[in-house]
Amino acid sequence: MGNFIFEEINLMCIYNTGSRTGLIEALNEMRGHLEPDETELRELTDSALGKLQAMSDAEFAELELFPDFDE
């Protein structure tokens, strides 16, 4: 289910709207504001978006989206 990496989880926590489709929309909107030199964040966002789009709403509901900024 997703196999999200630590950085993707933290990114999703920041933009989480409570639903998979809402999070996808929020990440797409944020991605549109990235500068050309923000390639690492763009790649991270694209990776998270791909995994979110491939999962179901039920699978999304099982995710524990709590940031862990200490790692």
Task: List key phrases describing it.
71 residues; mainly alpha; TTRAP_sf; Transposon-transfer assisting family protein; TTRAP
Describe the 3D structure.
The mean pLDDT is 92. 13% of the residues are buried. The protein has one domain (6-61). It is globular, with a radius of gyration of 12 Å. It is mainly alpha-helical and 71 residues long. The chain has helices spanning 6-15, 20-31, 39-54, 57-61.
Strand proportion, as a percent range, falls in: under 5%
- Whole-Å distance between the termini? 22 Å
Q: Bin the helical content.
A: 55-70%
Q: What's the number of domains? A: 1
The shape, in one word, is globular
Radius of gyration over all CA atoms, rounded: 12 Å
- Unreliable segments of 5+ consecutive residues: none
Order of helices and strands: HHHH
Number of strands: 0
The tally of helices reads 4
Mean pLDDT: 92
